Amino acid sequence: MAQQANIGELLSMLDSPMLSVRDDVTAVFKENLNSDRGPMLVNTLVDYYLETNSQPVLHILTTLQEPHDKVDTDAIVLTTGALVLVTVLPMIPQSGKQHLRDFFDIFGRLSSWCLKKPGHVTEIYLVHLHASVYALFHRLYGMYPCNFVSFLRSHYSMKENLETFEEVVKPMMEHVRIHPELVTGSKDHELDPRRWKRLETHDVVIECAKISLDPTEASYEDGYSVSHQISARFPHRSADVTASSYVDTQNSYGNATSTPHSTSRLMLLNTPGQLPQTLSSLSTRLLTEPPQATLWSPSVVCGMTTPPTSPGNVPPDLSHPYSKVFGTAGRKGTPLGTPATSPPPAPPCHSDDYVHISLPQAMATAPKKEERTDSARPCLHRQHHLPNDRGLEELPGSKGSVALSDLPGFLGGLASEEDSIEKDKEEAAISKELSEITTADAEPLAPRGGFDSPFYRDSLPGCPRKTHSAVSSAQGTGANPEPLNSALDRLGPDTPKQAFTPIDLPCGGAEESPAGDRERQASLESSILTPSPFKIPPQRGVGFGGGQPPPYDHLFEVALPKTARHFVSKKTEGLLKKAKGNTEEDFMPSASPMEVLDRLIQQGADAHSKELNRLSLPSKSVDWTHFGGSAPSDETRALRNQLLLLHDQLLYERFKRQQHALRNRRLLRKVTRAAALEEHNAAMKDQLKLQEKDIQIWKVSLQKEQARYSQLQEQRDTVVTQLHSQIRQLQHDREEFYNQSQELQTKLEDCRNMIAELRIELKKANSKVCHTELLLSQVSQKLSNSESVQQQMEFLNRQLLVLGEVNELYLEQLQNKHSDTTKEVEMMKTAYRKELEKNRSHVLQQNQRLDTAQKRILELESHLAKKDHLLLEQKKYLEDVKLQARGQLQAAESRYEAQKRITQVFELEILDLYGRLEKDGLLKKLEEEKTEAAEAAEERLDCCRDGCSDSVTGHNNEEASGPNGETKPPRPGGARGGSGSRGGGGGSSSSSSGGSELSTPEKPPNPRVGPCSSRWETAVGEPTTGIPMTVGSLPSSKSFLGMKARELFRNKSESQCDEDSLTSSSLSETLKTELGKDSGVEAKPPLNLDGPQPPPPKPDSVGQLRIMDYNEAQHEHS
Amino acid sequence: MTEDSQRNFRSVYYEKVGFRGVEEKKSLEILLKDDCLDIEKLCTFSQRFPLPSMYRALVWKVLLGILPPHHESHAQVMMYRKEQYSDVLHALEVIRFISDATPQVEVYLYMHRLESGKLPRSPSFALEPEDEVFLAIAKAMEEMVEDSIDCYWLTRCFVNQLNNKYRDFLPQLPKAFEQYLNLEDSRLLRHLKTSSAVSKLPYDLWFKRCFAGCLPESSLQRVWDKVISGSCKILVFVAVEILLTFKIKVMALNGAEKITKFLENIPQDSSDAIVSKAIDLWHKHCGTPVHSA
């Protein structure tokens, strides 16, 4: 306890906000878990987690290690786990895929577990486990076929697993078809989330059911009609086993139909409530389960169905109404569920049908019960209803092999459950026996059941167990169906969804599936205490437990004739024994674990009932309130475990049922929609008819209109023809008139022509008259003429005569002189001929000469062309050379220019130097030589003037020759500047150059003249352009020149020169400076065209020359 | 063109890849191979393409008339030029106008003045504006040409060309400058006008001295290629391009004096790009010169 408290504390500390504390506690827990191998701590943790949802605990639990996580050997836990897995798998197809390997491993281990049976697991548990493994197999194969098959391949290819495969897995595989995914899909495709997205949970379940061949699991829809055949074949296999029993049932049926028919009719009075109830149960089944699933479940409940899976076994006449029953039942079910589509059909007729079929079957089952009762006689009271129940169970089993495996299994489940409940209350001996039965698979001695039948349920509340009578039961049944019916009626208008729930409510949520049924059976026992069994929750039912003999056995007594029952029971007993043996030995491997489980349950139920029969009822009722009290603990546990297992199974089945319900809901929706569409179609058809009627009316009116139209057309045609004939007549008239008018016109024209002709004739006559007159005058003239001609003729004739005479005279003379002339003519002819030949040869000669001359001309012409070409080339070359020479000449000239400039500079320098030299001397002799200097200056000036004039003429010549020789640059400065020293270069300038040469040598020796000459030099050197021009235009005269020079000087130096002309030295000085100033600053005075300025172009000088000329002329004139 | 057949077939790709001048050098060599140089063709070539530096002096001399078109007379003419140069130099020395200490550029100036007959009386005369132009150009030319004779002749003839051939065009260049600047960037011109710097821009430096002293010689000679080959309009585009290049700075400056001062002393590092862009601009506005013959 101390440890417990400690753990409690620790657990509370585990959720403390302190991280360190939490870590510490976690560490403590882990340590504890490692050291302690007991499950206690783990269990405590789990409990705590369930209570508080504590995350740290979850963490600890998830990190559990050995030995706590080892495989539990408890079959119950395993079975539960497997079933939970099977249930959960369709819900998490996508998220579960990462644990696929684990699932497969679970399957592998469980399957091997089934075979090896480790520990002391009882066979019963194993059967449960096997069933759950089988379900798991189906689920896994249905959901992940490729992966699962590959797992199977890999897992069972190992030798150690081979046995398991042979024993466990292989039989399972016999109950599945080849999954289409194995052909079309792949491992990855299976895990593709898109595959699962489309499917809901119940879709997945149905998918899994589709591939199952096991009739308990299989689903026969959506193109799986083959499964019908398979399932039909499946019963065939067991047909040999059940054949006889089947025949028996047939016989019994025949009996039932022949004799009990009337009784059943009578019974209708008694069982009106039952039938609706069965119907309702059937309908609920139809609602909740696919039709295929109803193959067995309703039959179990009602005990009246023959499985449609074995149509071959059922006589055609029987199968027909049977299927009809199904159809009607189905139809009935749907109206109840979906009242919106169609109102619930009138129950009488259907129920009538139903009764017809169901009752015989119920009767057919009865004999079985009788047979059972025979076998288990001990308690007569019980025998009455138990065999009945047994018969209910047995009947489908004998009818179809599927039922053989399923229905008893189903009921067996119920029985075992009840057993487990009831056994708790029974003594140890019973339990021992029971265990014997379960292990040895003992044949069911005492047929039991009936708890599950609706009759039993119905009758339970009303009548006490012992004193029930036909009347009371009838009352009970009569009383019970009413609320049910009313409930159903109430449900009727509800939506299909609600159709389930109300049934859920009264039945405590246990009636939806076989499992629910089973549970309900369990609850029924406790339901005795409650006024309405439907309201009792199944859990409570389980809790209470305890079974009471069904109170409705008397019904069967009434319903079934004993003889038939006896006969059938006898027959079936033997066959059943045989079948049991067969199924146990031969059929077992192929039988599905479900069947085995079912059978186990059934056997358990039988055993239980047997044991129960031994007990006195009161003692049983005493023990009901609790269980496990008196019984040995292990037995009790075993029983409890079995109960748990059954509960698991129940829950699993319920889950399946829910999935089916969901599916049905969808299907119903489809049906509703289809019906709505049909109605819509009908409405559309009506509309169509109406419209067709309209169309016909329109057609009739159209025909009328057409007739009227044709009539009008005819009228119009006649009028038109009349008018046409009128027009034709009028046209004819018109043509006649036209012809007449034309005739008249032609006549008129004829007349006109005649008139014209007559006029012409008149004119002709007139002209003739004129003509004749003219002729007359002419003739008269001619006459006069001819007269004069006649006169002349006469005169000429006379002359002719005279001349003839003269001619004759001359002829005579000529004949006398004719002889000498011929010779002379011949001579002349020859002479001419010769001359002609001569001339001809001459012509020939001339022609030849002409030819040669022409040739010669051609030759010469070509020569000429060549010459021309050559000449051209020469010219070009000459040009080239000229150009070259010109370039050189230009260079040379520029050089020459430079040289000239240099000399000028030199001269200037020299003069400057002279000036300085003489400055001193001059200053001294200034006074004395003043006059002399002036004279000398005058002389010098004159001399210079001579030279200058000459040079100017030369310059002029040069100027004149300028235009001719273009090579010479138009630089008057050349003549101007060099006038002193080098001259213009022209022939005429040679004398002047001589003159200038004369003058220049004069300069140096004559110092007195120096200043003046230098002055002149400057005047000549610089302003030459001005002077030659002024002079050049006029004949040179010394006096004039002098005057000009003076004028010039006066212009420049104003009156200074005039006044102080004798003070030459100073004058020269001033002149020089002034000139310098002029050259530098002002180049503008009209006559001051001196040097520093670049030599003006020739046209300018000419222009100035002219201007000067004009000015001079003006001056002279003035 | 006749030399098309001799052209390298890769020429198309050279230009695509960006190698300029490979073909131009070749075609220039073909041009120079002729006995008698075609001055017009040379002009066109020089206008269209940048001259290879190894032929630049020769082409300039021919274009400026220092050398005649005939190859045969080159030697002789060059000899004349040389003699003329030495004569003038000698004369200057004789009259003690120059001494060894006189800077070469001034020597060129005196020689030029002497040759044009404008030699002043004494070396210490006041320099006139045109003399300063001459000095600037001579200074730039001195950097470009090694031989002093060549330098003198090129300077002299270049100045003569400016004074004769372009005498009428040069005064119109400022107007053209404004016009093209307006086309290229009217905002800049507006800025210049608002700061009344348009009239105070260094037109003398740009158009009279032809950027001598403004641009480094390596870029300058590419401008002068165009000037010598007969287009003084390139000067306008160089000026426009200078303004465009330094637009941001010029826009930042407000005073006319500042702008002028900045433009007179522009940074030299981007001059090559300026010249290239200016030539592109010139081609863009005036079209690529095509040989008219």
From TrEMBL, chain A:
Q: What are the Gly residues biased-composition ranges?
A: 974-988
- This protein's UniProt keywords: Coiled coil
Ranges where the record places region Disordered = 328-347, 364-399, 434-536, 954-1037, 1051-1104
Ranges of compositional bias, category Basic and acidic residues? 1071-1081
Example GO biological process term? negative regulation of TOR signaling
| Keyword set includes Phosphoprotein | no
Claim: Phosphoprotein is one of the keywords in the record: no
Where does this protein come from, organism-wise? Neophocaena asiaeorientalis asiaeorientalis (Yangtze finless porpoise)
Protein name (database record): Hamartin isoform X3
Could you tell me the gene encoding this protein? TSC1
**One annotated Gene Ontology cellular component of this protein:** TSC1-TSC2 complex
Compositional bias, Polar residues, is annotated for: 469-478
Q: Which segments does the entry list as coiled coil?
A: 674-768, 811-863
Automatic annotation (TrEMBL), chain B:
Places the protein is found: Cytoplasm, Cytosol; Cytoplasmic vesicle; Lysosome membrane
SUPFAM superfamilies reported for this sequence = Ypt/Rab-GAP domain of gyp1p
Q: Does the keyword Cytoplasm apply?
A: yes
GO cellular component: a single term: TSC1-TSC2 complex
> Which InterPro entries does the entry link to?
Rab-GAP-TBC_dom (IPR000195), Rab-GAP_TBC_sf (IPR035969), TBC1D7 (IPR039842), TBC1D7_dom2 (IPR043039)
Which is a GO BP term held by this UniProt record? positive regulation of protein ubiquitination
Q: Work out whether the entry's keyword set contains Cytoplasm.
A: yes
Which GO molecular function annotations are given, in alphabetical order? GTPase activator activity; small GTPase binding
Question: Pfam families per the record?
Answer: RabGAP-TBC (PF00566)
**Which residue ranges does the record assign to the Rab-GAP TBC domain?**
50-231
Keyword annotations for this protein, in alphabetical order, are: Cytoplasm, Cytoplasmic vesicle, GTPase activation, Lysosome, Membrane
Q: What does this protein do?
A: Non-catalytic component of the TSC-TBC complex, a multiprotein complex that acts as a negative regulator of the canonical mTORC1 complex, an evolutionarily conserved central nutrient sensor that stimulates anabolic reactions and macromolecule biosynthesis to promote cellular biomass generation and growth. The TSC-TBC complex acts as a GTPase-activating protein (GAP) for the small GTPase RHEB, a direct activator of the protein kinase activity of mTORC1.
Subunit structure as annotated in this protein's UniProt entry:
Component of the TSC-TBC complex (also named Rhebulator complex), composed of 2 molecules of TSC1, 2 molecules of TSC2 and 1 molecule of TBC1D7. Interacts with TSC1 (via C-terminal half of the coiled-coil domain).
Q: What is this protein called?
A: TBC1 domain family member 7
Q: Which organism does this record belong to?
A: Phocoena sinus (Vaquita)
